[in-house]
Here is the input.
Amino acid sequence: MNIEENVKNLLNGLSENPFGEKVTLVAAVKTQTPSNINAAINAGITDIGDNRVQEFCEKYDKITGNPKRHFIGHLQTNKIKYLLGKVDLYHSVDRMNLAEELSSLGEKRGVTSEILLQVNIGNEATKGGFDYSEIFDVYKKVKALPNLKIRGLMAMLPDSDDNKLLCTLAHRMRDAYDALKSADENICALSMGMSGDYRLCIDAGSNMIRLGTAIFGTRNYN
Here is the structure.
């Protein structure tokens, strides 16, 4: 598995989305060693995304090249304190109490956090996120909280072979993103697309993708 080659091939193959927006590649680094992550950064990766707080903390000082740090996994409110001020963008703000706690702790520490609202676009019981129908109400409530800046939306498409369904859901996410963007100039990120579906997501208008396997190969959970 040649990480450098994978990164270069991916970056060379990334064109703008159909809306003329640059697509940001976030390397999903769950279970990866600092040396693997640094190899990806040396090859051109500028953004890395962690899923687990413990891993984030353990590797934080071992990462070189000063990449933009994303937190892309489910976040428990009692672990925010370990990340605050170190994460550039939280992708998975999937419930009000998480937004409220990020805001409250940020206010106490003088830290403003940039966030994405996670949408459960497939209405899947196994995934977190706000219902599509409540995005605008949630946006208004979260926007009123201090020390938070909403930058956009995040979604994970269902694991399905039904391409028509996936395209429909991905386009619905873009519609919601466009509606928010027209009302708020701070909105700039639609984080949607992983190693198995990122091309479809870019075609639908995603401008931020989270790739792990495509960069590092199949994860080793041992």
The chain has one domain: 3-10+17-216. The mean pLDDT is 96. The longest strand covers residues 148-155.
